[in-house]
Amino acid sequence: MQNILAKLQLYWPLTKSLQTGLLLSTGLAGYMSARCPVLHWTTLMGLAISLFLAISGSTVLNMWYDSDIDARMRRTAQRPLPAKQVTPKEALRLGLVLSVLGVGWAAVLSPLYALVVFSGFFFDVVVYTIWLKRRTAWSVIWGGIAGGMPILAGRVLGTGQIDSIGILLTLAVLFWIPTHILTFAMRYYNDYKAAKVPTFPSVYGFPVTRTTIAISSVLASLSIGTAGILIGMQWGFVRLLAVLSAGLLILAVASLARPSEKVNFGLFKYASLYMLAAMILLSI
Amino acid sequence: MKITIFDRLILLITSLLAAYQVAVGIEGVDTLPMIAYTIAFGVLLVAVLLLIILGLEVLDSPIVVIISTVIPLSLSLGLVWEHLPTWHTFYLTFAILGFLAIVITRLVQTGKAATIVLAIVHGIAGLIIAVLPIALSVMEITKPGFSLVGIGGALIGLGGLLLSFLKTGRPVLSGEMMMKVLPGLLFLMTAAFVAGFALK
Asked: Which residues of A touch B23 (CB under 8 A)?
């Protein structure tokens, strides 16, 4: 028993629990945007577990594939794989098992839902991580598309189809991803440079990256707001979403006008908080 | 000065209260006061979130003086629009000009004129928020609970003035002491506003 607990403790960081939790919350919000109040708790639980497994699985596979990059970056050098606490073979096996279980469970719930979950897995692991991440800074777009799949999956499970609101919600996450990832890429610029991973800041410079973040923040806010109105969100929640969006835009503009490390990282944290809050508001 | 976990918790509760007020709005008010109240509580919400995320050092930014004026100005505008119909045009003009005067004097100069403008605009807006709800309650135009908004107004006036004088280099409380009391002050003020509007 102690052995299993010790293994779980080692495996848990491989799933990037905070990032997985945030993506999972978008999936739940996508479902609840179509089916609120939730009357089918078994379906909701199935959605949560299958998405958690699939997202965790693809994250573990990312970690497995990128362990050489992680070893070269100071921020990630202590992760279980580069620190040799978990062997690559073990991580690969874990990632595959979680992914297969996640997509398999999704297939039991609904074939179309499973297709979207699998697309997320495919875009994240194959297109983003294996194919593009080491080749082009534009890989962030494909990472964004992969990040948008959980919310689309949730919506698809709720409605039984891919509708315009689902696409808008996917776009919202897609546009939010640059705010999240590019602020991170600026903060750990030297790390990514040392690992020879092309990022927007290293290829196009900080000013272009900041402008990209500001534009994508505007687009993310507009997409979430429009989706909220189309869903029929109560006006009070639309007001609250507008206020939170204004905060995101102010920070994005502040990082353009008065660039500093503090504002940059503040924007990163606020963007995460914003997405979580937006998902809660979409779910109510 | 590092923000403590307790302060973070207090600020988090404050942000939730402000978010609640933005979401539920104020019952039975016109569009303009609703916009004014939303701006007031919205600015408060974002400001508190930024305090949590960036820490109390964010108060060093010169924009804080301008932001700390938006809250009392928009809140007082909402109250005047709701309860003093004959003062609509005058107070709307005062709020717009007052805000512009503060922005201009902050950007152009930080001398005596800036301090005077700040004290006048803050003082009038603060007095309205503090006195009007209490007067309305005493005259039984609103329920007694509405006077809590006045208490919140007194607190915001106090906090705003202390912060403004600190920013203009004429501190009443030291910077360190100000940072210690600010989270609690923000919480009490927001709680008083939310309770007051709920008990109107």
From this structure: 234, 236-237, 239-240
Model pLDDT for residues A94-114, shown as the tens digit of each residue: 999 999 999 999 999 999 999
Closest residue in B to A243 (Cα) is B42
Q: Is the pLDDT of residue A27 over 90?
A: yes
d(CA A46, CA B93): 57
Instruction: Tell me the ipTM for this assembly.
Output: 0.88
| Contact yes or no for A247 and B54 at CB 8 A | no
Interchain CB distance below 8 Å, A266 and B46: no
Q: What torsion do the CA atoms of B174, B177, B179, B180 make, to the nearest 10 degrees?
A: 180
A183, A235, A243: best to mutate for the B interface, most B CBs within 10 A = A243
Task: Give A248's contacts in chain B (Cβ within 8 Å).
Answer: none
Does residue A128 register a pLDDT over 90?
yes
Q: Tell me the mean pLDDT in the region B80-94.
A: 94
Cross-chain Cβ contact A239/B38 below 8 Å: yes
* CB of B114 closer than 8 Å to CB of B168: yes
Q: Are B145 and B196 in contact (CB under 8 A)?
A: yes
Half-sphere exposure at residue A202, Cβ-oriented, CA atoms within 13 angstroms: 20
* pLDDT at res. B27: 83
CA nearest neighbour of B166 among B152, B155, B156, B177: B177
Does B22 contact A243 at a Cβ distance shorter than 8 Å? yes
Tens-digit pLDDT profile for residues B112-148? 788 788 889 988 999 999 999 999 999 999 999 999 9
State pTM to two decimals: 0.87
> Which tens digit of pLDDT belongs to each residue from B7-42?
999 999 999 999 999 999 988 888 999 999 999 999
Alpha helices, DSSP H, located in B84-174: 88-108, 112-138, 147-167
Here the tokens at position A241 are: 């979403």
Check: CB of residue B52 under 8 Å from CB of residue B11. yes
What Å distances lie between residue B144 and A230, A255, B134, B140, B147, CA to CA? Answer: 40, 45, 8, 7, 6
- What is the rounded average pLDDT of the residues B29-56? 92
In chain A, which residues have their Cβ closer than 8 Å to the Cβ of B31? none
Interface-testing mutation among B11, B17, B37, B54, with chain A (most A C-beta atoms within 10 A) = B54
